[in-house]
Write a structure and sequence with these properties.
about 650 residues; Beta-lactamase; 20 helices; seven-stranded mixed sheet
Length: about 650
Amino acid sequence: MKVEDKKWIRIRIYLVAIFFLCGLTTILLRALQLQVFEREKLDAIARAGYNDVVKLLPKRGTIYDREGHELAVSVEVDSIYANPKLIEDKVKTASQLALHLNVSQNSILSLLKKNSPFVWIDRRLSPEKIRQIKALGLNGVGFTTESRRYYPGMDIAGHLLGFVGDDNQGLEGLEKKYDDVLSGPQRTLIQMVDRLGRPFFISNPDSGNNRDLYNLTLTIDKDIQYKAQQALEEVVQKTKGKSGQCLVMDPVTGEMLAMAVVPSFNPNIFREYSPDQWRNRTIADCYEPGSAIKAFLLAAALDKNVVAPSTKFYCEDGEYKIATHQIHDTKKYGTLSVSDIVILSSNIGALKIGQVLGYSNYYEYLKRFGFGDRTGIELIGERQGTIRSPEAINLIDQSTIFFGQGMSVTSLQLANAMAAIANGGKLMRPYVVKAMTDESGRVVKEFHPQMIRRVLSEEISHKVTSILEDVVSERGTAPLAAITGYRVAGKTGTAQKVDPLTKGYSDEDYVAIFVGFVPVKNPRMVILVMIDEPKGIVYGGIVAGPVFREVGKWALNSLRVNPEIRLVETIKESPQDNIESPDKPILIGEANLLPDFRGKTMREVLKKGNQLGLDVLIDGSGMAISQEPDAGSSLEGIKTIKVSFRPPA
């Protein structure tokens, strides 16, 4: 073979090798493109061809009260779906389903006629209905598990909790405010279909991401909340009132223990109520505070040192004219001290204190107490109320604001301002969420007390408290708010409402208020009660005071707060007790023996001990479980008896 022929053979080999090498390189590059760079895109296109994805409702975190009781939970329930392409006799299937569901046959039939491999028939059904439909053995009808929101307390704290919609999204209350926190990961139902769209595999519900689900622990006490709603509902029905509100809060921390509103509603069936009943009135409704504002007028005047508790003012025998406006008192008072003006709730006396203080100073203190501003509580829909500035108010309106007319407040503002007096002068930010936890119970975020500002010195707070304590005495306006064994301080308010037709104050519609705290020393709770438009007797001390007493008594026992005053002869009794206190002991039969106090209430023990002329020392709260000396001991020589109490199991 010639050299030139060998040379061309070699060239042809090289050319063929280069051709195959280029072809292989092209194949490898194309494979790299498809398998690496465009993998996700192509995978999605492929899956879309044989996968049908149905989004299910996400789970939601649980809401607990401060003791770990469930207030809102997510429960697993079954739903029914269908693949119309697999159902041959659609009319028969629709008829059988309609017999067991609260859905018409025509509605179901229209769903089964859709050109879709997946339609919902009915969702979140009871186990009994699911059992009945499964027993039918219908082709093309399937079942899957979904999450449904459930409120085990029914109407307990309904206005605070709110509710969720059909897609498990928060619509009101805490459910809406913390929707992002409570909502869990989106879950999907995946079914694989053939080239004709017929499913041959359906997966179990699964979450498509690793998003965390969180729970909320509230500051609310379920038991105190229940009692507040119960007592409030009773008095609203008794007085034929339009509505009512009751707040219980810890004045030291700002924690809300109860937020009750009447009329109440059950968030499980919220659609059966009008939207007006969903509103949390404790933060969303404004009203004139009436004489309840005198507590803060007193605090401002004492703090500014323009009056002392003993300073006296002439109250004009019940009538006083400012320009063309006549101011009235319920009684014809003559000269009263500052203390008596608040204790007896004289409007004319309050006006004269205000004149000495000056409206500019008064306005400044009202703002410092938080009136005219939102409290900052983590709830949707809070209003700020109204107070007119010194530049925007005339002389007559200035005068009426000194006794609570011409301004508006929310119940939360009023309770929080009273808490500032109770805790020694510190305005706290009220809050209802104590902590956020993950599904394992680990605390993710914790919320702590937050002081907004100091309003008063402790010395002034104690002076104001001392006067407010006498409001609850026999000579004050709220003896019905007294709680046996505990020192109570507070202030009543009876405010006229504005008639929407005449634009003037109504002679028939009033707001009855009592706001106070207990015990006076080391207070554990501030309680506000407001009854809107009670009929008949409308005074705050008579209408709202007893609710304060009932809720306070329950709450003190629930929190195991021992009676503050231990000697029976110094315990203040509310007027309805009407306990006689003879000077000499009453002998029990001829034997003159010490009775058995076990199983009796604290009031019964105190009453009997008082009748026997004994000093009763109290230990604990609830029902009597033991005593020293023992029952049956001779009364001779016994001056003091110790009785131990424990809450009933």
